[in-house]
Amino acid sequence: MLDVIETDWNDVLNIHNDECMEEKPVDTEAMGEKFQNRILIQYLSEGARSSTALRRIVKSIFADGSVEALKAYPEVFKDETREANAKTGTKRKREVKLNLDEDDYGDYLQNEDDEDNTPAPSQSEVSSSSTTEDSSNAQSATSIAEDPEAVTIRLRLLAFVSSTSGNHYFTNKRQLSLASFTAPSLFVPIRELYKYYVEAIKPLPLPAFALFLSPSAMPHLPLVALSSITQAHLSQLLPWSAPRPDDDVLTQMNLEHCFLPFAANTSSVEDNAKVSLLVETLFRLLATHGGIEYTAELMAAVEKGIKAREKKCTGTRRKKSGGSKDDEDMYWLNASAERMRLLLRRYERG
Questions:
Q1: DSSP summary character for residue 171
Q2: Is the predicted pLDDT of residue 122 greater than 70, yes or no?
Q3: By the 8 A CB rule, do 272 and 312 touch?
Q4: CA-closest candidate to residue 65, choices 73, 55, 56, 53
Q5: Which of the four pLDDT bands, split at 50, 70 and 90, describes residue 108?
Q6: 3-state secondary structure (DSSP) of residue 149
Q7: Residue 19: alpha-carbon gap to chain centroid
């Protein structure tokens, strides 16, 4: 399904880009109609009309099969996920006799691919099964969220939605936006959309959080989008005293003064580990795509931040209630710090 949506979207995007490359005047009305008829826009047209619906769209991307998610996003069709008959690949037909006067409905109330006439479970069995299901769903939710293949699908969906909300294309020194080709009711400002992205990603456990907000997400999430979403997370996790950049443009100056030197605004090991992962991502993005110049200021900012985060979450004022989870989170914090130091040394050697 994603392949079809992506192909359908790229077809019209390629037409637009070809016209720009040939320096042809862009027929805004005709191009707008082409964009509005895309499958992706048809899917999102209802949701973009209210913040509540848009939040629901974003949250649906992170639905993980848990009981809560299944309640919020049930099957579209009854028994949608049931397997077909393994032998024939189709559902088995039966010839049965009905006697409605005697309340004999044959197998009408049974699932067609049931192989026996197993009686309906009792209420106590249902309750027991529900408890077991809740427990297994809670476990599967984490494994699904941390599965790289599942994360890839979610990243593609996040990229699709953001592509309708003001992505910019620079051609012949003109800044062109997809937003200018879609009706105002079909998209939202990109900053507002990223606010919902932060709401969905921020609560994830560290392994999943790292998969969504690391340079490894780049093949599916554009560089500009990944940088902006990362900065949006930092704006919520850093203290208010930390300076804020004027815009989302990632520069070495912004990295040194606004992100690298700071700890989280809480003493939580998890929050400080997330801040470390986020600033590491910005550091790597700039090193890979924008270029880093080794300076004494850069080295000082990296070391100051590492020490500040370590001190913040290991101080005596922090509650000692995290147990083994704190130990795991501390591992993530220390590993991120070591990677930044290694990257810094590489630039120091030239």
A1: E
A2: no
A3: yes
A4: 73
A5: very low
A6: helix
A7: 32
Only one residue has tokens 């932060």, namely 198
Q: Do 181 and 35 meet the contact criterion of CB atoms below 8 Å apart?
A: yes
How far is C-alpha 306 from the geometric centre of its chain's CA atoms? 26
Q: What does the alpha-carbon distance between residue 240 and residue 265 come to, in Å, rounded to a whole number?
A: 8
Give start and end residues of each alpha helix (H) in the chain. 2-21, 28-36, 39-44, 51-61, 67-72, 123-146, 148-163, 190-201, 206-212, 223-237, 252-254, 269-285, 296-314, 324-348
- Count other Cβ atoms within 10 Å, centred on residue 329: 21
| 111 token code pair | 């699932």
Quick one: tokens of 282?
A: 């910005």
Q: Say how far apart CA 146 and CA 204 lie, in whole Å.
A: 9
Tokens representing residue 273 in the block: 């580990």
DSSP class of 184: G
Per residue in 275-293, pLDDT (tens digit) is: 999 999 999 999 988 788 8
Are 307 and 257 a contacting pair, CB within 8 Å?
Answer: no
Q: Which two tokens mark 272?
A: 């400080």
Helix 223-237 and helix 148-163: axis angle, to 10°? 100
Instruction: Report d(CA 206, CA 238) in Å as an integer.
Output: 17
Distance CA 23, CA 88 (A): 57
pTM of the shown model: 0.74
Query: Closest Cα to residue 159, out of 230, 220, 70, 224?
Result: 220
